[in-house]
Amino acid sequence: MNIGFIGTGNMASAMIAGLHSSHPDWQIHGFNRSMGKLTDLQTRYGLQIAQSLEDLAARADVLVLAVKPQGYDAMLATLAPPLQARHTLVTVAVGYTIARVQSHIGTQTHIVRSMPNTPASVGAGMSALCGSAGLPEARRSDVTAVFESFGRAVWIAEGQFDVFSAIAGSSPAWVYMMIEAMADAAVQNGMPRAQAYAVISQAVLGSAQLVRDSGQHPGVLKDQVCSPGGTTIAGVAALEKAGMRNAWFEAVNATLARTKALG
Ligand SMILES: NC(=O)C1=CN([C@@H]2O[C@H](COP(=O)(O)OP(=O)(O)OC[C@H]3O[C@@H](n4cnc5c(N)ncnc54)[C@H](OP(=O)(O)O)[C@@H]3O)[C@@H](O)[C@H]2O)C=CC1
Ligand SMILES: O=C(O)[C@@H]1CCC=N1
C-alpha cells in the first residue's frame, strides 16, 4: 500500500502513528506546508517526505487530504492537475461534502469521504467512510484496510457524517475534559494527579468496553453500579442537578451548528 498525506498535523499524525504500528511495511509519504512536523514523523514512523504535491501524487495511490476545511478549496484546485485514474482521494474535512470536492476536481476521480479520530494513534480509532458514486470494490477494500489498520471503520450514508463527526471526531476532546475534571476532584481529595489519570483512564476504558461488548443498554449498566441509598446514586443526583445530560445535547448541537457554518 502506498499512502500519501497532504497536511501532516494532528489528525494525519495520529493516523500515521496507527498505520506505522500495524503495518510497518506500508509506504507512507507526506507533504506539509512547513518542515518540522515532517521531519518529526520521519524520525518516529519512517515517513517519506515528498517535496511537492506533484511529487506526493507520483508516489502514492491513496491520497489523504488532511488540511483544515478552510484550506480545502484552494488545495483541491492545486491538487486537480496531478490527479490520475489510479488515485483514490480520501478527504477528512469536517462538513466538506463529496459533491463540493467534485465541484473542484470533477467526477472522474474516485473519492472516499472519511471522518477518523485521534485515538487512531494508539490503534483505537473510530472512523466513518463514504464513497463517491461508482467507487470500485477494490478501492473500497483498500481504504477499509487503511482505516481498519488504526481502529474500527464503518461505511455510512453521507447524510450521517455531520453527526458522526460530533460523536466520534469531536467527542474525544469532551472525554478528555471529563477525565481532566474528574482528576482535579481526585487531586482536591488528596490523590496524586498521575495516579488519578491512570485510574480514571482505565475506568473510562473499561466502561466503554462494557457498553460496546455486552450490548446492554447504558442505563442498565448504570443501574448495576448504583446501590440503593449508596454512594454512586448521590453522585448521579449531583450530575443531574448540574445539567450533565443536557450539556451533552448542547455540545453535540453546538458542534453541528459550527459544522454547518463551516460548510
Ligand atoms: N484533529 C482532529 O481530532 C480531527 C480532525 N479532522 C479533520 O482533519 C483535518 C486536519 O485537521 P488537524 O489535523 O486537526 O489540523 P492541523 O492544523 O493540526 O493540521 C493541518 C496540517 O495541514 C498543513 N497545511 C495547511 N495548508 C497546507 C498547504 N497548503 N500545503 C501543505 N500543508 C498544508 C498544516 O501545515 P503547517 O503546520 O505548516 O501550517 C498542518 O500540518 C481537518 O479538515 C479536520 O476537520 C477530522 C477528525 C478529527
Ligand atoms: O474540531 C474540528 O473541527 C475537528 C473535526 C472533528 C474533530 N476535530
UniProtKB/TrEMBL annotation:
Entries under InterPro entries matching the protein: 6-PGluconate_DH-like_C_sf, NAD(P)-bd_dom_sf, P5C_Rdtase_cat_N, P5CR-like_CS, P5CR_dimer, Pyrroline-COOH_reductase
Domain (Pyrroline-5-carboxylate reductase dimerisation): residue spans on this chain: 158-261
One Pfam family in the UniProt entry: F420_oxidored
GO MF annotation: an example: pyrroline-5-carboxylate reductase activity
UniProt superkingdom: Bacteria
EC number of the protein: 1.5.1.2
Any one of the GO CC terms: cytoplasm
Residues that bind NADP(+): I6, G7, T8, G9, N10, M11, A66, V67, K68, P69
Known pathway: Amino-acid biosynthesis; L-proline biosynthesis; L-proline from L-glutamate 5-semialdehyde: step 1/1
Subcellular location as annotated: Cytoplasm
Catalysed reactions listed for this entry: L-proline + NAD(+) = (S)-1-pyrroline-5-carboxylate + NADH + 2 H(+); L-proline + NADP(+) = (S)-1-pyrroline-5-carboxylate + NADPH + 2 H(+)
Biological-process GO terms, alphabetical: L-proline biosynthetic process
Its job: Catalyzes the reduction of 1-pyrroline-5-carboxylate (PCA) to L-proline.
Similarity remark: Belongs to the pyrroline-5-carboxylate reductase family.
PANTHER family reported in the protein's UniProt record: PYRROLINE-5-CARBOXYLATE REDUCTASE, PYRROLINE-5-CARBOXYLATE REDUCTASE 3
Protein name per Swiss-Prot or TrEMBL: Pyrroline-5-carboxylate reductase
Natural source organism: Amantichitinum ursilacus
Gene that this sequence comes from: proC_1
